[in-house]
Structure formats: structure tokens, C-alpha cells
Amino acid sequence: MVVPSTAVGFQAAVGTRRSLDGKKDASFHIYKLPKDRSLRLLVKNLGRVMPESVVREEFESLNIRVQEVTQLRYGRRDQDHSKDRPPSPHFIVSVP
């Protein structure tokens, strides 16, 4: 197991891992550094017909950089995902 203590060491370990990619007997898992992780915000009750682009624009008008906006949909986990599920009024907004 390789556990680098600095960001530079982490980047070196990732580079080495990438050079091993595709070779036999090389298994690995990489965790993101805290500075590289994104924060996911749940924004509730904006309306079912609110476009994701409007949510993004509102955050950016507040000088909040947005990585991704996803509107949640109604349905159960065991429900067939190929069927169209109605949108909910809630959004997940990922920010750095």
C-alpha cells in the first residue's frame, strides 16, 4: 500500500499507477485529495419544470462555480430505470 503524505507524492503515485494500467497483477484504488473533491448540495422545492441551466446560472450569478447540476427524479430503487420517471422539484448541485 502506498500512502503519500503530500500532494506532490500523491500525484507521483497516481502517475506511477497509470504506467501500470493494463498490466497483469496490478490492482489499485485511488482516493481523491480533499482539495480535489466536490461538495454536493441538495436544493429543494425549485419546481418540476425548472431547467437545470437556470439553476446553474443562478449559482454562477452568486459567483459560485458549478461543476454539475442534476434534477432528481421520482421512483424507487427497485423500479425499472428504463421507464420514464417524473422529475422532482429537487436538484443536486456539485461545486468544487
- Quaternary status of these chains? single chain
SSE order, one letter for each helix or strand: HEHEE
Mean pLDDT: 82
Order the strands across the largest sheet as they lie in space.
Answer: 1-3-2
- Ends distance: 28 Å
Low-confidence stretches: none
Helix content: 25-40%
Q: What radius of gyration results from the CA coordinates?
A: 19 Å
Instruction: Return the structural class.
Output: alpha+beta
Q: Kindly state the number of beta strands.
A: 3
The dominant shape is flat
- The tally of domains stands at 2
- List the total number of helices: 2
**Residues in β-strands, percent:** 15-25%
Largest sheet: 3 strands, antiparallel
Précis, in short:
The protein contains two helices and three strands. The protein is an alpha+beta fold. The chain has two domains: 1-34, no CATH class; 38-96.
Q: How would you explain this protein's 3D organization?
A:
The protein has 96 residues and is of the alpha+beta class. It has two domains: 1-34, no CATH class; 38-96. The protein contains two helices and three strands. It has helices spanning 7-20, 52-61, and strands at residues 39-43, 68-73, 87-95. The chain has a three-stranded antiparallel beta sheet with strand order 1-3-2, with helices on one face. The longest helix has 14 residues, at 7-20. The radius of gyration is 19 Å and the shape is flat. The model has no long low-confidence stretch (mean pLDDT 82).
Write the layout of secondary structure elements.
Layout: H1 7-20, E1 39-43, H2 52-61, E2 68-73, E3 87-95
Antiparallel strand pairs: 1-3, 2-3
